[in-house]
Design a protein that fits this description.
globular; nine-stranded mixed beta sheet; 24% helix; cell shape; alpha+beta; two-stranded antiparallel sheet; L,D-TPase catalytic domain-containing protein; L,D-transpeptidase catalytic domain-like; transferase
């Protein structure tokens, strides 16, 4: 993850001021210059509000104006959720992801008080894992079945797991495969997950790091709960 721009800049840099002389450039000047390189997006203030409330992405000031710290926090968020390009612009994709993550109520899954439950909110296209009634992994983004291949709502059990599964119908490898219904399962996405017009053929696509984490947690017999319905399906 990216470190905050301008954080811990105690040293001075030197820049020509006049012939034969050099003037110190303070951390504030460096920070201001760094901020100027980050564009202010349409959803700047909304995203600042979300990131400040969520925490964990760095210092953010809710004022609708881009700063070096704001930019670093947005970049960190974008990298976490695989948003490209990760350049700190508060654009529609970044805001959409932030809204969906913020709206994900982990209690809505109705997970049991014992054991592990993999939760998938089909409406919001998000997922998280509960263990013994508590959140084990925070909500993240997913992509489920597109129109004609809708991922159904229901309660299932993981019944097959392989680190790399070959899909005969679609001729593609599916990393971190965990099947829970028919030919449907969790696996690492094979395309850019934020292309909304795309979708799976019923599987739950995950970002690479999330797919690996889910695989590390998973085991045969664990519960998978899908609920809601993907818009447009």
């Amino acid at each position: 993850m990216s470190a905050l721009v301008g954080g811990g800049l105690g040293a001075f840099a030197l820049t020509p001021a006049s012939a034969g002389a050099a003037a110190p450039v303070t951390a504030a000047v460096v920070t201001k210059a760094a901020a100027a390189s980050c564009a202010t997006g349409k959803y700047q203030r909304q995203l600042e509000t979300y990131l400040k409330k969520a925490g964990g992405y760095g210092a953010v000031t809710v004022d609708g104006r881009q700063s070096a710290a704001d930019c670093a926090a947005i970049v960190k968020f974008q990298k976490r959720f695989g948003i490209q390009p990760a350049k700190g612009l508060a654009g529609p994709t970044t805001f959409d992801v932030a809204q969906r993550i913020a709206a994900s109520n982990t209690a809505s899954c109705g997970a049991k008080k014992s054991g592990v439950t993999f939760c998938v909110n089909l409406t919001l296209q998000t997922s998280w894992v509960m263990k013994n009634g508590k959140v084990l992994t925070a909500p993240t983004v997913v992509r489920t079945g597109m129109k004609g291949y809708r991922t159904p709502a229901g309660s299932y059990k993981i019944n097959k797991r392989t680190k790399k599964e070959w899909s005969d119908p679609y001729e593609v490898w599916l990393p971190y495969w965990q099947r829970f219904k028919g030919g449907m399962g969790f696996h690492q996405t094979t395309t850019y997950i934020h292309d909304k017009w795309r979708g799976s053929h019923g599987c739950v696509n995950l970002l690479p790091a999330d797919a690996k984490r889910y695989y590390d947690i998973g085991a045969k017999g664990m519960t998978v709960k899908t609920f809601g319905r993907r818009p447009g399906t």
